[in-house]
Amino acid sequence: MSVTLDLTAAERERILAKAAHFSPPPHILPDGRRDLVGLSREELLAEVEAFGEKPFRAKQLWHWIYHQGVREFSAMSNIAKPLQEKLAERFVIGRPDVATDQLSKDETRKFLFRFRDHEAVETVYIPDRQEDRGAVCLSSQVGCTLSCRFCHTGTQRLARNLSAAEIVGQFMAARDAYGEWPSPKGETPRLLSTIVLMGMGEPLYNYENVAKAMKIIMDGEGIALSRRRITLSTSGVVPMMDRAGDELGVNLAVSLHAVTDELRDELVPLNRKYPIKELIAACRRYPSASNARRITFEYIMLKGLNDSEADARELVRLIAGLPAKVNLIPFNPWPGSNYEPSTPEALRKFAAIVMQAGYASPIRTPRGQDILAACGQLKSAVEQAAG
Ligand code: SF4
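^ thats the input. predicted complex w/ iron/sulfur cluster below
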C-alpha cells in the first residue's frame, strides 16, 4: 500500500476519532424509553429480538415509521393492541421539536428544530418555482469548526455532531409539516423531492452519523429517496470524499469559492490542510460522478475578491475534464458580514466564460433571504440571541 494511502487512511481515522468527541447524546429518554428513529435495520432488529418479538416485527415497524410516518404505535393497524401498548411502554418514535417555523415571501421555509438536550439546528425547504417539488437542506452539526469567512454558521462554534436520528428527524419533521406521508387511500405528491446536505456543519466531519442517516432515507421500504436525489456538500475533507463516494454514491457538491490557494486559505481555512490540487484530485476519483451526475462546484461570488474574468478562466482550467457544473451564488449578507455580492455585470461575464467552456453555470437566485434562510445565512437562533 503506497505512503499516500497510509497517510490518507491514518488521516481518515483521525477525523473519525475527532468526530467521536462531538458525538450526540444517546437516544434514550429520561424515562428509559428508547427512540426507534435513527436505528439502522440491524439495530432495529436487535431491539425487536431483545424485546422478545420475531424478526418480521422489525420489518413492520420499519414500514410504519419510515413509509407511513406514524408517530404512535396505536396507529399500526396490523399490530395487535396489547403489543402496541407494550411497544409504547418501551419505545418512542421521535421527532425534533419545532422551535420556530418561518415562511419567506418566496415560499422558502425555515425550521429551527430543537433536540432533547436543547441544542438546535436550522433546516430549510426550498420549493421549486416551476414544479411541485423542492429541496430540503439538512444540517449535520450544531455549529461548525471550519469558520469559512462568508458563512454565518462559521461564526458559531461547534457544539456537537448530530446523530443519525437528528439528521433523519429533520427530514421527517419537514414531511410532517407538509403532510407528505402516504394516506391510506394512496400515495401523496413528493414535494420534498431532494435532499441537499448543505445546512449547518461539515457533513464529512460527522461522516458516520450522516452515512447512517442517508442509508435510512435511501432504504427502498421506507422513505425510499434515491441516491440520485441526494447531494452531499463538502468544503473539501479530502480523505472522506472517497469513502462517501464508495459507500453512499450520492451526488457531490464542493464548496470551492476561490481558484488560488492564497485566497481559498483565507475564505475556506480547511484549504490549508487540503489545498485545491488535492481537492480537485479527489473530485477526479469520485466514483459516482458522470455526465448524468455532475459534480457541483459551489462558488460564492464576492465583489472584487474572486469574481474577475481571470478567476473564471482559472476555474475552467482547474476543472477541465471533470463532469461538472458551477453554481454561481451571489453572496448573501448576514448580520456582521463584511462582503458584498458581485455586480450583475461581473456575474454575467463570469458565467459566460464558464458556459463557453462547456459547463453549466447558473447564477443562483437567493431564496429565503428575508428570513436568513439563503446559502451561508444559517445560524441557530440560540446563538443569534447570544450575539
Ligand atoms: S460553509 Fe459549511 S463548512 Fe464552511 S463554515 Fe459554513 S457550514 Fe461550516
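The chain has two domains: 2-92, 97-386.
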